[in-house]
Write a structure and sequence with these properties.
Layout (H helix, E strand, L loop, with lengths): L2 H18 L4 H23 L7 E3 L13 H16 L4 E6 L8 E6 L6 E5 L7 E4 L4 E2 L5 E2 L10 H15 L5 H9 L9 H20 L15 E3 L2 E4 L4 E5 L14
Parallel strand pairs: 1-2
Antiparallel strand pairs: 2-3, 3-4, 4-5, 6-7, 8-9, 9-10
Bound molecules: zinc ion.
Length: about 260
């Protein structure tokens, strides 16, 4: 997906929304289908082909423009995506965000073997943003809450300790010093957030381990051909946006065996 394509999609959605106001129900349906086709191209570039959408709440034909999705609709969409995850199907859902212009939407996307990713478009011309979302739920205001938690300043020492544990069990206790050495390079001085600083530390640790042992660590148990990344205190397979294990619990990989 390119930024240009996303911008075209957002612009088209806005024009379709405007045009939809003057349409009959049939015309609205047609334009709604056209919008679904546009979004499908953008999102399924990430998720792969999807048989059944879990919800696309736009262009409903209200005279004053498309209304936002209700909390109940969003909950139904989230349940649908989670059911697809249990069935190992790709799925996605998007909906209007309340109180903002028609091109701002929120949603979830799911690859066949991954965890849900939050999909966000922040307005005219913005590219779609995808971020892995552990166990999504809907709060009282209809906002998606994810359970993955960024490292804060208070949690930074604990996060480093957990990384040291994973290195000790996964590579060997003699490599714990690599974590201490890399953590000592304080990236927060470079203006990074504690979470970004910790991610940078983890990336340097992985690089140092690869340079020393000649092997990638930790290897993704789903694909076996790439290393896992740390994302907000979880080991993540970036290919499928699958949370594989919490930081410090790398031994409890799921699944234990690669996919067929
Ligand atoms: Zn993987």
């Amino acid at each position: 997906m390119t930024r240009g394509r996303a911008r075209i999609t957002a612009t088209l959605l806005l024009s379709l929304a405007t045009a939809a106001r003057a349409q009959t129900q049939t015309g609205v349906e047609e334009r709604r289908n056209a919008a679904v086709t546009l979004l499908t191209g953008e999102i399924e570039g990430v998720t792969g082909p999807v048989d059944r959408h879990c919800g696309i709440f736009i262009l409903t034909g209200d005279p004053s423009g498309p209304p936002p999705a209700t909390r109940r609709q969003i909950q139904a969409a989230v349940r649908c995506v989670l059911e697809a995850k249990r069935q190992r199907r790709a799925a996605w859902a998007v909906w209007q965000v309340a109180g903002v212009d028609a091109t701002v939407f929120d949603g979830l996307a799911l690859t066949r073997f991954g965890d849900p990713q939050r999909v966000e478009a922040s307005g005219n011309g913005a590219a779609l943003q995808f971020s892995p979302c552990l166990r999504p739920r809907v709060d009282d205001d209809g906002v998606i809450i994810c359970r993955n938690t960024p490292v804060d300043a208070k949690g930074l020492p604990k996060a480093i300790e957990r990384l040291r544990d994973d290195v000790r069990r996964g590579v060997g206790k003699e490599f714990r010093a690599v974590v201490d050495r890399e953590a000592a390079q304080d990236s927060t001085a470079a203006g990074l957030s504690p979470d970004a600083s910790f991610s940078a530390t983890a990336a340097r640790v992985r690089e140092a381990l690869r340079a020393t042992t000649g092997a990638e660590w930790p290897i993704c148990p789903l694909h076996r051909d790439h290393a896992l990344e740390l994302f907000e205190q979880h080991w993540l397979c970036r290919k499928d946006a699958a949370f594989v294990a919490p930081l410090g619990k790398l031994r409890r990989l799921r699944p234990a065996r690669p996919l067929p």
